[in-house]
Specification:
Length: about 150
């Protein structure tokens, strides 16, 4: 019960609400490098940090996929960051048909979730970024069907 996440390493910037998220480089499933948040600037971004072994993460994926499809080319962009093995994530995406971008990072005290404001490392973890990369909202725990649109709008 007293367990806690390891301390955030010195020099790692943890995002705070109302501030710009730190720049980070992650890999896409095709192994290309993606600069976050720059790659997705110009539109709000819902980033969902998850893992294929996380039951609540897997349960919320259909709701995230439905929301992403509803948004089209001009709405909120949905991006997943899997703290997981790239092969496990590829298999998961193929099996479930997730179409929004999925990036990969290794879980640890300085992973993307930590840098996005979740130093305890609880999954799933979601953030909403403004079109210019400011951290607007944070959420620990899964979304239920139909609640994402209201959360992203309010």
């Amino acid at each position: 019960m007293q367990a806690s996440a390891p301390p955030v390493p010195k020099g790692v910037v943890v995002a705070k609400r109302g501030e710009r998220v730190p720049n980070m480089q992650l890999r896409a499933l095709d192994r290309t490098r993606v600069e976050l948040p720059a790659q997705y600037s110009g539109r709000p971004v819902l980033i969902n940090v998850w893992a294929s072994w996380c039951g609540p993460c897997v349960k919320e994926m259909p709701a995230l996929e439905a929301f992403a499809r509803e948004q089209g080319a001009n709405g909120v962009q949905v991006v997943g960051i899997a703290l997981d093995d790239v092969d496990a994530v590829r298999a998961f995406v193929e099996r479930t048909g997730v179409t929004y971008p999925i990036l990969i990072d290794a879980a640890g005290p300085a992973d993307a979730g930590v840098r996005l404001g979740n130093p305890k490392g609880v999954l799933p973890y979601s953030v909403l970024l403004s079109a210019d990369g400011l951290l607007l909202k944070q959420r620990i725990g899964p979304f239920e069907e139909g609640e994402i649109a209201g959360w992203a709008r309010d």
